[in-house]
């Protein structure tokens, strides 16, 4: 009997172990380390395709930990792929790190920019990148300790905010052998459902006319601004005649130089969104017709450039349920008294009718499955049509905070954001480990992907064959 027991103990000792508490404790021990990385990114917000320092810091962190890093992939200077291990399964974790223009803000619960009109991490991508790197290193350490077979990759994906970095990385074949892709996003709550997003095409329409003195010789001028305004008027009329789920919005990025000069050049920047990528393509084609009509009516010349185009997220319930289980295990974000006061002050800045409590950050949303797109768009959508993909949101912002606001920047620059970041890092870690422990999950996830996207699916990037728009934020 003792011999049999001894043999069993020897066999068990040779098997890969998963000390779940130990993995989480190691992440807790490095929370300050990863929090410092996030603060460095937050303090130096860099716009899409211009994230030189942010990308370099994340690359160095991964390289120092033992990953092999390949930089400048897909003709994008700030994109990278960090890899550890070999063979199957291949699990990817995506990391974003670009900021947004015009939302500079100090880590205070009152509106106070660091630099007036400057950039800021209003979508929390400094936390996104840092948590994904933390998860990648945590999973790698577990793989080393337990001699786990398989490949782990961290994808550094620039310019999510309108630049579509993941689209070009996918088009370059960088995910063609990936079995499962994991991601997360900062949020005002904790959730890991199988949900979707809106497909989107964004385009700059440029009109070229002829300058003239607006008072002395207006008849000689051909106003490019007239063309922009005519196009925008027709686009606004379209709103009555598109599916109700459609979202169309624009800004005039160039409208002329002086009132007494007929503008020879003008430009507007348009977004078209819908839960179905094919509907987006149809509406976009109608939008191009309005631009052509505007040019015809104003005797100007029109050109357009598709800046970005992304698919809607394709849910994967197989993977999402694993992630949701792990999020429930990790739990939400608990505030200190100081953080509660910060949150209460932030909540006071919300519009009337927003009913939330600081304690909501501790809650985990129920698991849901939905193919109805939410309010935003992401280049993760393209990835999800090519590789089984699962994501989650963590409460890095005060409950009730909207993305792309100064309130999001403020919380993302202090301990509330960093606590939510570690919730994401832990959940991603446990989810990747679960899949490495049971690689059969990848086959089930792929079967679901094939069923959802339908027979005969052939991926065609909505950006066409254009090169990455490396100057779209310049």
TrEMBL record:
Keywords: Hydrolase, Signal. It comes from the Bacteria. It comes from Algoriphagus oliviformis. Coiled coil: none annotated. This is Amidohydrolase. Residues 1-19 form the signal peptide. The lineage of its organism: Bacteria, Pseudomonadati, Bacteroidota, Cytophagia, Cytophagales. Pfam families: M20_dimer, Peptidase_M20. Residues 202-294 form the Peptidase M20 dimerisation domain.
């Amino acid at each position: 009997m003792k011999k049999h027991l001894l043999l069993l103990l020897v066999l068990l000792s040779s098997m890969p172990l998963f000390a779940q508490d130990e993995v989480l404790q190691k992440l807790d021990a490095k929370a300050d380390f990863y929090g410092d990385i996030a603060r460095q990114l937050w303090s130096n917000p860099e716009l899409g395709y211009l994230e030189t320092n942010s990308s370099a810091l994340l690359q160095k962190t991964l390289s120092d930990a033992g990953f092999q890093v390949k930089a400048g992939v897909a003709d994008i200077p700030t994109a990278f792929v960090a890899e550890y291990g070999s063979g199957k399964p291949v699990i990817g974790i995506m990391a974003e790190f670009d900021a947004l223009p015009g939302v500079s803000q100090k880590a205070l619960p009152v509106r106070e920019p660091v630099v007036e009109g400057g950039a800021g991490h209003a979508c929390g991508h400094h936390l996104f990148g840092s948590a994904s790197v933390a998860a990648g290193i945590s999973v790698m350490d577990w793989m080393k300790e337990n001699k786990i077979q398989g490949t782990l990759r961290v994808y550094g994906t620039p310019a999510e905010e309108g630049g579509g970095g993941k689209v070009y990385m996918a088009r370059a074949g960088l995910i063609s052998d990936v079995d499962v892709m994991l991601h997360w996003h900062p949020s005002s709550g904790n959730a890991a459902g199988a949900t979707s997003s809106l497909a989107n095409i964004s385009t700059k329409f440029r009109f070229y006319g002829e300058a003239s003195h607006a008072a002395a010789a207006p008849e000689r001028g051909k106003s490019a601004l007239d063309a922009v305004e005519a196009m925008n008027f027709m686009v606004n009329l379209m709103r009555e005649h598109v599916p109700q789920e459609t979202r169309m919005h624009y800004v005039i990025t160039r409208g002329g130089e002086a009132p007494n000069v007929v503008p020879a050049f003008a430009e507007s920047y348009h977004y078209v969104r819908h839960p179905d990528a094919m509907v987006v393509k149809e509406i976009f084609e109608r939008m191009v017709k309005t631009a052509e009509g505007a040019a015809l009516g104003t005797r100007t010349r029109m050109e357009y450039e598709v800046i970005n185009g992304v698919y809607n997220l394709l849910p994967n319930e197989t993977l999402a349920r694993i992630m949701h289980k792990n999020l429930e295990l990790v739990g939400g974000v608990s505030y200190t008294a100081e953080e509660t006061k910060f949150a209460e002050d932030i909540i006071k800045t919300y519009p009337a009718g927003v009913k939330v409590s600081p304690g909501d950050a501790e809650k985990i949303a129920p698991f849901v499955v939905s193919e109805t797109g939410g309010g935003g768009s992401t280049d993760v959508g393209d990835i999800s049509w090519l590789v089984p993909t699962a994501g989650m949101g963590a409460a890095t912002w005060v409950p009730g905070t909207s993305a792309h606001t100064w309130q999001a920047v403020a919380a993302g620059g202090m301990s509330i954001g960093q606590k939510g970041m570690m919730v994401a890092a832990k959940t991603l870690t446990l989810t990747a480990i679960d899949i490495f422990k049971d690689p059969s999950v990848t086959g089930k996830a792929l079967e679901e992907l094939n069923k959802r996207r339908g027979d005969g699916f052939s991926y065609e990037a909505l950006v066409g064959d254009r090169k990455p728009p490396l100057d779209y934020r310049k």
